[in-house]
From TrEMBL:
ANK repeats lie at residues 16-48, 80-112. The keyword Secreted does not apply. It comes from the Eukaryota. The lineage of its organism: Eukaryota, Viridiplantae, Streptophyta, Embryophyta, Tracheophyta. Keywords: ANK repeat. This is Serine/threonine-protein kinase BSK1-like TPR repeats domain-containing protein. Residues 187-264 form the Serine/threonine-protein kinase BSK1-like TPR repeats domain.
């Protein structure tokens, strides 16, 4: 980075992943974030739909969040109807929530579904987050007992769920807890299908950061689709992040161990990390479950050649 900058590289240059600051924040690279901010990179630049601050929160990097806020990042700059504080609440990052509040984040601004950060952390049973947000959040009229215990009990009660359901789907007539679970499941499925579709659209545009956002939303809505983990792993691989590509690939293998592509994603990730031996091992597993997969055969041969430094004939 120092060499490129010394040769005239533009700090605010745009790429598929945004500016260099967007990319560094998305991967939690605190040294890179500091270097760019020291050279006056814009901490509030919106690239596509993202800000560096939102990227660093999604990466769960407290250090990057802190650096960006100190450099003047706006803790209330929202996108897609979600504020940085709401994003941190969804991620369950209590330390980041504290950091945002100290920087002036407004705890009373709701997300696109009308839920405040306090309600979000409460619904996720994040008591530490509730304790941080409770003293600074204005009283919510729908919660009768305005206390820590009262908030948690209400959000997990049938009445609390009814209120949330009616807020998310106003036309729904409440019919008991069973209906809540049914409609909530339908709402999740609707979100999952939309997010997966948007992710595929973004991937076709080669906007891998946007694709990862939608694939992550799809995963939050349905944790059991190996395809989405495979797609997100591919996005991380395209951005040369082997560690995160591997994490998603391993989840994909666990969900669908007999799927050749799942093992292919894993070996690609190992190759990115420079571990050719593990890459060859993953390719081998993939060929056992899908011996006719031409993509695996070619990649396996290339990995073996790289590992042993000698050509391998196709018959072998």
């Amino acid at each position: 980075m120092q060499l490129l900058i010394s040769k005239g590289a533009v700090i605010e240059a745009e790429s598929d992943g945004g500016t260099p600051l967007h990319c560094a924040a998305a991967l939690g690279r605190k040294e890179a974030v500091k270097m760019l901010l020291d050279r006056e990179a814009n901490p509030n630049k919106v690239s596509g739909i993202y800000t560096p601050l939102m990227n660093s929160i999604s990466a769960r990097s407290f250090e990057c969040v802190n650096l960006l806020l100190k450099a003047g990042a706006d803790p209330n700059l929202s996108w897609k109807g979600q504020t940085p504080l709401c994003n941190a609440s969804v991620q369950g990052e209590t330390d980041i929530i504290k950091c945002l509040l100290n920087a002036g984040a407004n705890p009373n601004v709701a997300d696109i579904d009308g839920l405040t950060p306090l309600e979000i952390v409460g619904m996720h049973s994040n008591l530490a987050g509730v304790m941080v947000l409770f003293p600074v959040t204005s009283r919510i009229p729908t919660i009768p007992n305005w206390s820590l215990d009262g908030i948690m009990k209400h959000l997990h009660s049938e009445e609390g769920r009814r209120q949330i359901l009616c807020m998310l789907i106003p036309e729904t007539k409440w019919n008991g807890l069973k209906m809540f679970e049914t409609v909530w499941g339908l709402k999740k499925m609707e979100t999952y299908l939309l997010a997966k579709s948007r992710g595929e659209e973004a991937f076709r545009r080669k906007d891998y950061m946007d694709a990862m956002y939608w694939y992550s939303l799809a995963i939050d809505s349905s944790l059991y689709d190996a395809t989405v983990f495979s797609n997100r792993s591919l996005c991380w691989a395209r951005l040369n992040d082997g560690s995160r590509a591997l994490s998603d690939a391993e989840a994909c293998v666990v969900l669908k161990p007999d799927w050749g592509k799942a093992h292919y994603r894993e070996c690609v990730a190992w190759k990115l990390l420079g571990n050719l031996r593990m890459s060859v091992k993953a390719f081998s597993k993939g060929l056992k479950v899908d011996p006719e997969n031409k993509e695996l055969k070619v990649a396996f041969r290339e990995a073996v050649e790289a590992e042993f430094g000698m050509p391998v004939f196709e018959e072998i």
